[in-house]
Amino acid sequence: MKFQLTQFLKLILLGAFSSFFFKLHLTGEIAKFINPKYILMSQLAGFLFILLFIIQLGRVWEINAQHHCSAGCNGDHDHSHSRFKKVFGYSVIILPLLTGYGIEPATLNSSIAGNKGLLLPQNEGMSQARQDAFNEVVSDREPLDENEPIPNNNYLSDSEYDRKMELLKEEQIEMSEDVFAVYIEEIQTNPQMYNGKKIKIKGFVYKENGLNSNQFIISRFLINHCVADARVVGMVSEYKDAALYTQDTWVELQGTIRTEEYNGVEIPVIQVEEVETISEPDDPYIFPILVKIV
Amino acid sequence: MSRWLYSSLVNTTGVLALIVVVYFVTYTPWLMNSVSFLLSDSFIQLNTIFLSILIEAVPFVLIGVLTAGFIQMYITEEHIRRWIPKNKYKAIIMSCLVGAVFPACECGIVPIVRRLVKKGVPLYAGVGILLTGPLINPMVILSTYMAFGNHVTMAGLRVGGGFTAALLITLSISTLFKSNQLKGPLADPVHKEAQAGTNRSFSYKARGMMQHSIDEFFDMGKYLIIGAFIAASFQTYIPVKSLYLFGDGLMYSTSVMMGLAYFLSLCSEADAFIGASFSNLFPSVSILAFLIYGPMIDLKNTIMLLSVFKIKFVTVLLLLITAIVFGSIIVTQSLFL
């Protein structure tokens, strides 16, 4: 009968992992990391860790000491490793627990947006072929009205989706969180259809290279699965005092959509009439719209 | 040793472990606060991305290691010998098909493949499953279909092209490597009795399967964590646009997209949306390369494979996948488009 320190360490780590997953759900922090639609999987992980914790409990005291390998052991695990490798291995495993408990999750900001690719059509350095490909992609897209809503929604039913898409035809466009991405895509695909319409939109200020000093992009991060696949969606906005609003400031603005030529591509631009600085919303991210397939 | 004494000892240990966990949970924020002046804003962003990759991947890894544990305890070499066709070419096709119907992600598949190869599945058949498992499954097909504006073309090309490429790669591996290429001893004869096929009770085996999964989790977990950390650093510090400043043309854009697929290490269920966001910058075939290459191999996956297989094999596999995906994309482009 012998106390197995390594097994005890594993036991503690399994417990800590389990409590980490439950903490994420109980505090709601999970929404800072993954699309809430997928939380079921991570809840499952929390419960699986509890199960493994219980199983692991039986291994801490090995009854048969010289046979220090229990059921299922194939002799290919830790034993052959050197002490250093072992210590290193466990330090690596502890790392996410340390930073997970110790560092508050951040909301992605413009420094990441800048790394994620560009929103504006690029011209300089773009060959004819690429330009053609771009135009082809743009012209390929059908107007959204004819598209079926994408299967599997952020909890919008088919009819509600249709109703929301109807709202886009009104004079005043309200960019609410649930339809943010589809609205923007639609407006960018057919800018001339929305020329002159009023718009009200919330987001953070992102200044992409190549914008004038009176312009910024009003943006949100769109998350499909987890924060690692976030991408920026947004619209160019023009405002005389744009310079006053620094990167990452959250604002709500009202204005009129006008089409402008940018690098030979027609894009929608918001002529801002009113800006109000707001605090970061509780749900800073937006999620793709999907209609349930059942 | 009396049974009562043993069980109360175990209970005490459990309580003790929980107390340690509570201490850990309580004091870590305090500990990290005291070093918070060392943390830059960009590191905090990096940490968020790092954790989100893990939170997304861990459930799949757990399912992967449990499956591996199940194979260890319930499936014998005898079963496998019966299931895998004797003919090499039939075996290759079958392994790719098995991978295609098996819903796995690229981090969950590595422990499963290792266990299968250890159980005597030929290396090339293991590779077949490794390649098509994460690439072709209902979630991936659905997300690709959605990401490309509900057009079936891209999803179809991804499945068709990916399957063909996987067959070619598996075929090459089967001619290049004869042995199983695993690291470490094949099996430990002392513990033979603890494997499948012996007449142990169901609950004994279930316990064995779980214990096995725990060890596998700690084994694989560290490589997953290292991979996720590097991928998060890449996302935080390296702007995507620095990649396409230097050139143009199909070869170039395809290499860039494949490089992205490798270093971003996205889950195959989510990468279609990222791929689609590049459609205003790169031609569709380059994006197709991104979609096929990423699930087959990426940074996080390579590190996990290196822990299981010999370096030489992983290097050859990496080069083969790269060459074949790249080659077939270029050929497709010049033949059909």
From TrEMBL, chain A:
Residues 10-118, 162-288 form the DUF1980 domain. The chain crosses the membrane at residues 7-26, 38-58, 87-103. Keywords: Membrane, Transmembrane, Transmembrane helix. InterPro entries: DUF1980, DUF1980_C, DUF1980_N, UPF0703_membrane_permease. It comes from the Bacteria. PANTHER family: UPF0703 PROTEIN YCGQ. NCBIfam families: TIGR03943 family putative permease subunit. This is TIGR03943 family protein.
From TrEMBL, chain B:
It is a multi-pass membrane protein. It comes from the Bacteria. The chain crosses the membrane at residues 9-29, 49-71, 92-113, 125-148, 155-177, 220-238, 250-266, 272-293, 313-336. The keyword Amino-acid biosynthesis does not apply. Keywords: Cell membrane, Membrane, Transmembrane, Transmembrane helix. The keyword Cell membrane applies. It is found in: Cell membrane. One of its GO terms (cellular component) is plasma membrane. Belongs to the UPF0718 family. This is Permease. The lineage of its organism: Bacteria, Bacillati, Bacillota, Bacilli, Bacillales.
